[in-house]
Amino acid sequence: MLEGTTLADGSSASELVAASGLWVMEGVPDFLTRATDYSEAAETAPAVLSVLSGSWTTALAARVPNGTIVAIDTHQDAAGERYAQTIAATLVERCRLKRQSAGRAA
Questions:
Q1: 3-class state of residue 91 by DSSP
Q2: pLDDT higher for 56 or 16?
Q3: Are 70 and 88 spatial neighbours (Cβ–Cβ below 8 Å)?
Q4: What percent of the chain stands above pLDDT 70?
């Protein structure tokens, strides 16, 4: 899914992610909700990742392709804001960031 990975058909995963975008969700329920928003047949569905406490690293950020539109969707609380700031700090120089803060799971 991220930089340096080849898909089963031989195409570049990084090109697909850069073209389709990436959602970074906080927590498993929100990840599962967003990841199932699209049909498995949707060729332009964005990639979806989830963050848990301490899971976002600079090494992970380095695998996000340059120029990718990244939607950061964390909860509207202190922890969610910290996650969003950490993610943004590692991507702001080379990706287009969108801040979502709804936290979709109820």
A1: helix
A2: 56
A3: no
A4: 92
Name the H helices within the chain. Answer: 13-20, 28-35, 58-62, 78-91
What is the rounded CA–CA span in Å between residue 53 and residue 46? Answer: 23
Residue type, 12: S
Distances (CA, A) of 92 to 37, 38, 62, 69: 26, 27, 12, 10
Alpha carbons 6 and 89: distance in angstroms, whole number? 27
**Cα gap 62→44, rounded to integer Å:** 22
For the chain, report the end-to-end CA distance as a whole number of angstroms: 28
Please tell me the least confidently modeled range out of 35-39, 55-59, 92-96. Answer: 35-39
Q: Is the pLDDT of residue 85 over 90?
A: yes
What mean pLDDT value characterizes the chain?
Answer: 88
